[in-house]
């Protein structure tokens, strides 16, 4: 008889990067990633620490909520404080006081969404900083170099993410170049047993291209695989169709990361497709704008119905932000544009996201993920508690 | 033999508002204010909780730093969330989760500095909200009513604070009207044994008018006295001269509160004149702008010299914000305009202010306030640690 699953226990760290697939339930997967800086229980949600801070949160709080890993944005960090400076300061972990694993993106996505006057060709991308207009160049090799200077534990290949809708020819061109860049990133990354470099499946909304991309990356035998270029405005149904086409091609013994996703419902359905890792700014960004994710769906705390409601967002939560502060106070803080409003709602939302991941892992462990998913969706559909 | 002073011990709360003058050292005074919601060790610094939140701080942190009382701004709270709403929500303490004493100002100062199109006469002041332009009227009676709806423990009379420089005739007119308003506020406040209403000495930079104001207020036999209309741009020397003129007139057995003051140096010198209570937005506002107050004077964390400095603001501090985060990280956060920068520097500054007050109280208890003042000023003059 196997002992009952205890989500509070993390496996011991290991000297090399390893993925352990512990259990499957349908296509949903329970596992751990172990490496020198710690262990990531999967399916995992990675809070986004954009520019070296999970916005409006102390990292102690982020850890206490159950985060095993956070994400840093290479684009933001390369502009400020700059990778060489971060290296001189002992690396990102030491700078921001997060000794646990960190994943960094390649910077490519934000180069394309935030910077201006960029030029993109086989060699890489030239762009102007959105902060001071200074010109920068990033090649696949430089992206890996920067991520190394940051001392990132899981590094991402540079890729080109095409905005949808796009011409099939354009999607194919970008996907093929991303594949060639993956190979260059693999070479640049070299042999670092305690760390990993993940490839990124591209191919837009065309299943055949997604399959080709996944096959090409699989042939590179990388330590993990991400699915990129989704959750960029397309319907959820398209995203899930792309996952269904892609994931069977990828090796089961490697972790799979769906980049930039998503809503709690996106996460639930993507876990059902076999995704192991997620990151998204949604809990923190929405929090700053007064939107709370709860067991009973979304709550817009700005709405007048909360103005005199003394009840908390969720009295059953163990998070102080969710349990101890009245909706009336949160409503007031958000309306008055006070920092504490964003602090409390980011805290609440990250707590809810981590609670959801804990529920997902427990359900897979107990072989009742489908039921958990149905129950969770049913609670969301019920909607918020009745107004006072 | 009296036991050594232990600043961590607060006297038990009392059913009625009481001031206990425990010791004097020169003109500096050590005491406590006791009342039903708790005890305030004086000299006290009251963090400003403008609109129901000490900006970018959890109130648990504010309490842990040693704050016995915080201040709420009647002007801000009357506009949002509104006093009647606060009352329906159980009062300000319950709304913001601060069960300890709260002092509220009368709203007068901010009406005059923030609102527009105001009309001021004997009856009170009519003004338009800086938020939505709606017209409001505040009389001395309405100010006390609002502070009562907020359930404030120490309430302030409505006064008229004249911007300096001003004509003597104008200063005298405003001072005399403020005296008449004090009397109306006293009547409106009535008999509330567990709470207090303080009068406010006005009179601009004219000693004779300050004395007249103090005499008039003393005759009203109020529970405490504030000195207002200072720290509004005049030289520190003028402020101290006004205190020297005013305080001897006030009864020794009542607490004395210097409104809106100030820098650590202002506080030290005003304690030396016999002031018991202070409030100021400086630690939180400066913190959000990257200015840190330390044992070794002011530190502008935005300066380039901190960009690669791994040392904390003050390694001897017991406050995590001061002790555990590198200057390089604080520099980065403030430069990148990240919320955590304001959170950490507000925390650090409030810690420093409370540490200063603890030092002041201990020094008075031990009869060495003059030495403490000289040592503290000497450390400030030394300036920050040498650059790396």
Structural class of chain A: alpha/beta
Going across the biggest sheet of chain A, name each strand in turn.
4-14-13-12-11-10-6-5
Which blocks of ≥5 consecutive residues of chain A have pLDDT under 50?
A: none
Which architecture of the largest domain in chain A per CATH?
Alpha-Beta Barrel
Task: Give average pLDDT of chain A, whole number.
Answer: 96
Radius of gyration of chain A: 21 Å
- Share of residues in helices of chain A: 40-55%
Q: How many structural domains does the protein architecture of chain A include?
A: 2
The fold-level CATH name of the largest domain in chain A is TIM Barrel
CATH top level label of the largest domain in chain A: Alpha Beta
How far apart are the first and last residues' alpha carbons of chain A, in Å? 49 Å
User: Number of helical runs of chain A?
Assistant: 15
Please characterize this protein's 3D structure:
Two copies of one chain form a homodimer. Chain A is an alpha/beta fold and 388 residues long. Chain A folds into two domains: 263 residues, Alpha-Beta Barrel (TIM Barrel); 94 residues, no CATH class. Helix content of chain A is 40%, strand content 19%. Chain A is built from 15 helices and 16 strands. In chain A, the strands form four sheets. An eight-stranded parallel beta sheet of chain A has the order 4-14-13-12-11-10-6-5. In chain A, strand 2 and strand 3 form a beta hairpin. In chain A, helix 7 runs parallel beside helix 8 and helix 11 runs antiparallel to helix 14. The first copy, chain A, is globular, with a radius of gyration of 21 Å. At the A-B interface, helix 13 and helix 14 of A face helix 13 and helix 14 of B.
């Amino acid at each position: 008889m196997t002992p009952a699953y205890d989500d509070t226990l993390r496996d011991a760290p290991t000297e090399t990067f390893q993925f352990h697939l512990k259990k499957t339930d349908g296509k949903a997967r329970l596992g751990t990633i172990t490496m020198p800086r710690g262990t990531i229980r999967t399916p995992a949600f990675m809070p986004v620490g954009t520019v070296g801070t999970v916005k409006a949160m102390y990292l102690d709080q982020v850890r206490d909520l159950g985060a095993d890993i956070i994400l840093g944005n290479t684009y933001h960090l390369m502009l400020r404080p700059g990778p060489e400076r971060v290296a001189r300061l002992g690396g990102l972990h030491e700078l921001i006081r997060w000794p646990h694993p960190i994943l960094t993106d390649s910077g490519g996505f934000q180069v394309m969404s935030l910077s201006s006057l960029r030029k993109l060709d086989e060699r890489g991308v030239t762009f102007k900083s959105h902060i001071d207009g200074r010109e920068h160049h990033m090649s696949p090799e430089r992206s890996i170099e920067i991520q190394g200077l940051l001392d990132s534990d899981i590094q991402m290949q540079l890729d080109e993410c095409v905005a949808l809708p796009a011409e099939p020819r354009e999607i194919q061109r970008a996907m093929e170049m991303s594949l060639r860049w993956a190979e260059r990133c693999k070479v640049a990354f070299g042999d670092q047993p305690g760390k990993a470099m993940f490839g990124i499946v591209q191919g837009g909304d065309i299943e055949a291209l997604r399959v080709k991309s996944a096959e090409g990356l699989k042939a590179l035998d990388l330590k993990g695989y991400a699915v990129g270029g989704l959750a960029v405005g397309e319907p959820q149904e398209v995203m899930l169709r792309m996952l269904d086409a892609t994931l069977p091609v990828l090796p089961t013994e490697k972790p799979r990361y769906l980049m930039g996703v998503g809503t709690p419902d996106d996460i639930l359905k993507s876990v059902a497709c076999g995704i192991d890792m997620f990151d998204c700014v949604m809990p923190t960004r929405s929090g700053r704008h007064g939107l709370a994710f709860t067991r009973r769906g979304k709550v817009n705390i700005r709405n007048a119905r909360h103005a005199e409601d003394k009840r908390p967002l969720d009295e059953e939560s163990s998070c102080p932000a969710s349990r101890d502060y009245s909706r009336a106070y949160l409503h007031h803080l958000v309306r008055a544009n006070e920092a504490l409003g964003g602090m409390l709602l980011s805290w609440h939302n990250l707590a809810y996201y981590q609670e959801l991941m804990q529920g997902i892992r427990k359900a897979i462990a107990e072989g009742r993920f489908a039921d958990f998913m149905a129950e969770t969706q049913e609670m969301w559909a019920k909607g918020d508690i009745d107004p006072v």
